[in-house]
Amino acid sequence: MRSPFGTVFSWLDLRLGLRSAVWPILTHPVPRGLGWFYVFGSATLTMFTLQIITGICLAVVYVPAANDAYTSLLYLNNEQPLGWLLRAVHYWSASGMVVMLALHATRVFLMGAFKYPRELTWLLGVGLLFLTLGLAFTGQVLRWDQDAYWGIGVGAAMMGRVPVIGPTLVHVLLGGPNIGGETLSRFFGLHVFILPALTIFVLVPHLYLVVRQGISSRPVPGKVVDPKTYAAEYERDLAEGEPFFPYDVSKDALFSALAVLVVFALAISFGPKGPNGPPDPTLVAAEPRPDWYFLPLFALLALSPPEMETAIMLVMPLVLVAGLVLLPFVASRGERSPRRRPVAVLSVVLLFVTYGVLAWLGAVAPWSPDMTAWSGTPIPPHMVKDLAPLQLQGAAVLQNKTCRNCHALDGEGGKRGPDLTTVASRLTRDELIRQVIQGGGNMPAYGKQLAPAEVEALVSFLGTLQTPGEPSPRAADAAAR
Amino acid sequence: MTTHEDQVRDPAHEALPSPHRRQALGWLSAILGALSTTAAGLPILGYLLSPILRTPKNEWIDLGPIEKFPEQQTRLIDFVDPLSRPWDGETQRLAAYVRRTGGEKFQVFSVNCTHLGCPVSWFPQSGLFLCPCHGGVYYEDGSHASGPPPRGLFAYENRVKEGRLSIRAGRLPTLQEPA
Ligand code: FES
Predict the structure, then answer these.
(1) Ligand 1 atom showing the smallest separation from residue B120 Cα
(2) pTM for the whole thing?
(3) Contact between chains at A282 and B150 (C-beta distance less than 8 A)
(4) Any ligand 1 atom below 6 A from CB of B134
(5) Whose CA is nearest to atom 1 of ligand 1?
(6) If DSSP codes are grouped into helix, strand and coil, which group holds residue A279?
(7) Distances from the Cα of A10 to the Cαs of A3, A18, A23, in angstroms?
(8) Is the Cβ atom of B148 under 6 angstroms away from ligand 1?
(9) Distance from C-alpha of B88 to C-alpha of B80, rounded to nearest angstrom
(10) Residue pair A118/A209 in contact by the 8 Å Cβ criterion
(11) 3-state SS assignment for residue B107
């Protein structure tokens, strides 16, 4: 006598053929001893699923129209029951997806899993990487706040630099001559229809290939990939292997569950991101910052020399894409173990260090002037104590002429230019005058902005800023006269 | 004896349609398919690319009587973008810096930094425009002072008629299509 469950199952199975179609996939053998590095791909998928579900929920309330988007975000944050949590989860799991994807791609790269016969899997994966970044950027625009408004402006400015067709691209991207309702509609369309659809469209064959080619065995130093012998060797690995279900899949499930819990913990403790200020183009005091994954780009654009910048902006991404696309073809055989591929390991280290340093620079933004320092950050009292009247006047000039926006004193103030705390120990009086009047380095020439008397006062104040007890070049200067 | 079944023809023995007919059918479906795809695709493409098919020109915008602008000073003003849509909300309004250099002579700058478009702030104290993003700096006449911007501020065309200042604006200024 069958249980009712069994009856239902066989009724369904007769029609769906699940047992014969899915069961072999679930239980297909995988090489033994895969370890814990193989869980990032499924974690990325989990995050993506979470994005779809929370995204649909958000789209039900969010108003993708320029005049109401911001209010609808505030409504989601403050009025809609659990709206804040949905927004927070959507934001944090977007970050989670980017992180997991980066780890997954790095794992595949380091373990040479992109090599023969998995070149196509890698290519589709590269597509997924860019689609994910596209989703991240378009999502940031839907936040429709100051960061979003100026962020899309930055995107447009970069596109506008493309030779010849730049302006055309800008108008297509913005959906009109300027940033407005049609821009938001376009990005909404991209973010909720086009990019997710494309992602699924690429994801399905990616997953199909993962099953079709099987999960790559653990790399063993000295065991090289050779298309002639590969199939036989992999057969052998599988023969010693174990079924994917239920052993290996549980590692994936466990890690994914942990990842989801971490996302929820972050969402609950930090809440949703923004919106930070209405997207009003007339509020020019905005200081836009992109979401963290784009901070390195933000930093790179500030640090690159102006002559090379357009090239960096336009050529670097192409080189990057070309590199990722060509990789599985130029390196489709040979060693897989990271121990025998120092160049691969080194490039990963280099990439991560560069990314990290640039992101950190982007976050602390040492090149950005502190726009309020001139009025909000007074000169430390000990620096103005016992000063002569002219020197005091100079201190006032330093403050009034907004020098502090770029120059710090005792670490307080802008970090765009050098800290002036001990500037007189570095520069002579003549050098100070020249620097103030002519500018240079990254400093504008103040000659036009200052009366001679102001320069005199300013320099006499700057002359007091030296390391105590150290002979200053200024003193030597004076002695020589 | 003939049964009913005998009269049913064996499909395996049935004459195939002539190769010509098959070929014609194949061609026909290809042609019709191409036609229908084009028919459906054209409006979609045209719709998506419409911003290039009709790129509106900047329009003249009245900024008011020139007495509003004291000589030798730079003022932040805002105006409604004539090219905006009714549902653009806050983004309908745009800002610009007006500098009256003397008499009826004006310079009107876009607030967008020429580096990557962040909004520059005017500091009358030092006579400089400062960009918050990567620290681009411009002098009061809009020329580049320091930092990454590749050129001076974008200036809108302006004219004074019957004592009123107007500018030609509306489009997002970019390096290849400055103001
Ligand atoms: S956008 Fe102004 S300096 Fe980069």
Answers:
(1) 2
(2) 0.89
(3) no
(4) yes
(5) B116
(6) coil
(7) 11, 10, 14
(8) yes
(9) 10
(10) yes
(11) strand
Query: Of A381, A198, A204, A359, which Cα lies nearest the Cα of A293?
Result: A359
Under-70 pLDDT residues of chain A: 1, 469-481
Amino acid identity of A409? L
Characterize A62-91 residue by residue with b for buried, 16 or more Cβ atoms within 10 angstroms of its Cβ, and e for exposed: bbbbbbbbbebbeebbeebeebbbbbbbbb
Q: Tell me how far the alpha carbon of residue B49 is from its chain's centroid.
A: 11
Ligand 1 pocket test target in B109, B110, B115 with most atoms within 8 Å of CB: B115
Q: Contacts of residue A296 in chain B, CB cutoff 8 Å? A: none
Intervals of chain B under pLDDT 50: 1-2
In this complex, is the C-beta atom of A294 within 8 Å of any C-beta atom belonging to chain B?
A: no
A374 contacts B123? CB cut-off 8 A: yes
- Indicate the pairing of strand B74-80 with strand A29-30: unpaired
- For B109, the enclosing helix (H) or strand (E) is strand B105-110
> What is residue A481's predicted lDDT score, i.e. its pLDDT?
46
Strand stretches in B111-154, DSSP E: 121-123, 128-130, 137-139, 144-146
Question: How much is the pLDDT for A365?
Answer: 72
Residues 16-75 of A with CB under 8 A from B: 65-70
**Ramachandran sector of residue A411 (left: φ over 0; alpha: ψ -120 to 50; beta: rest):** left
Q: What is the DSSP string of A64-130?
A: -STTTHHHHHHHHHHTSTTHHHHHHHHHHHHHHHHHHHHHHHHHHHHTTTTSTT-HHHHHHHHHHHH
Query: Can you say whether the dihedral through the CA atoms of B1, B3, B8, B11 is positive or negative?
Result: negative
> What is the DSSP pairing of strand B155-161 with strand B93-102?
unpaired
ipTM: 0.86
pLDDT at B9: 57
